[in-house]
Amino acid sequence: MRRLGFAAAAALMLAGAPALADDTLFQDMGGQDAIVKIASDATDNFLADDRIKATFDNTNMDRFRKLLAEQFCVVAGGPCTYTGRSMHDAHKGLHLDNADFNAVVEDLQKAMDKDGVPFATQNRFLARLAPMQHDVVTK
Amino acid sequence: MFDNGKLLATGGVSSLEGAGGGGLASWALITGYGTRDGVGVDGHATYISLPDYSLWTEGAAVGLFDRVELSYTHLTFDTEKVGATLGLGKNFEFDQDVYGAKVKLVGDAVYDQDSLLPEISVGLQYKDTDHGAILHAVGAKSASGTDYYIAATKLFLAQSLLVDVTLRETKANQFGILGFGGDKHDDYSTQIEGSAAYLFSRQFALGAEYRSKPDNLGIAREDDSWDIFAAYFLNKHVSLTAAYLDLGNIVIKDHQNGVYLSLQVGE
Predict the structure, then answer these.
(1) Which in A44, A107, B85, B159 has the greatest CB count within 10 A?
(2) Tell me, what's the ipTM?
(3) Quick check: B5 and A97 CB within 8 A?
(4) Does the predicted TM-score (pTM) go above 0.90?
């Protein structure tokens, strides 16, 4: 009976596997801890970047770090919930241009370099973030 | 104004005719690192060493608001010993001016990762070659001509792959170095060129290109061309491209394959 139960559970897991969200990228980036670290390192880079740091003058950075990690986790296919505003609402009125957006990309790339994410994996992640340009850049 | 706001390598390099692109292919990307709120300028010098000929180009280009590109390139084709064989004199040179303009119509090769739409641009290249009398003697109908092209370029970022496909309406013989139109064929024909490059890092790409060419002159067969290239982007101001280039037959010499080296500097 126990053996049957195990087999049934295994069969259920196998059958259920394709229905789960694809978290390959999440795993390839190193999982939850790595993504929290990437989000935090990227935030440090934003705040040290003369091109964009003024954008964060009125931002609660602890909350920002947490939301960025949530968002990165969701985008990578991880088991998280993003509790922040939509990209459109979060950037409304900031008048960001493409150079600002690209500065953020470069700072994130630098963070992923530091945290040992391979270049090809970085690009898979950036490919999912890139279309956010349409909502973030309003200028 | 010079915002250097684009991401590294996303302005391409300087193609043979001065347009932002690869080596043989003109791409849809607007040259330089200016975003749609800025301007980018760059200059380039390219040297091609073939078994029986050599070729120099120098030029400059400006990208305006990531929308319009204007370029000028001067090309010098050295016939080396072939010049003497043909009775023109050793190291007889053909010089050509290329004035280029390109306009981006739609799409963004980098941001539009949620769609298959490429960045699409149209362009023209007005080319004017000297020694018109000699060009006519070999069968060319004109010493100057205009190429028209439509280019589609897409970065498949998740695959780290950049792909371009360009269609060109042209009458040029050997890129126009041997004039335009010929005794065999004097109409525009549609030629195809393209590049595929794999990005190994933000600074380094390896790729291959192909470019078909018309075959207008009775005096000599003209072949399609291809290359394999490596591009290194030191930063947004300096890039180096090296390639192995095969131009096939040029006049009386077959197998014109050799080395292509190009330096681009910009702001």
Answers:
(1) A107
(2) 0.93
(3) yes
(4) yes
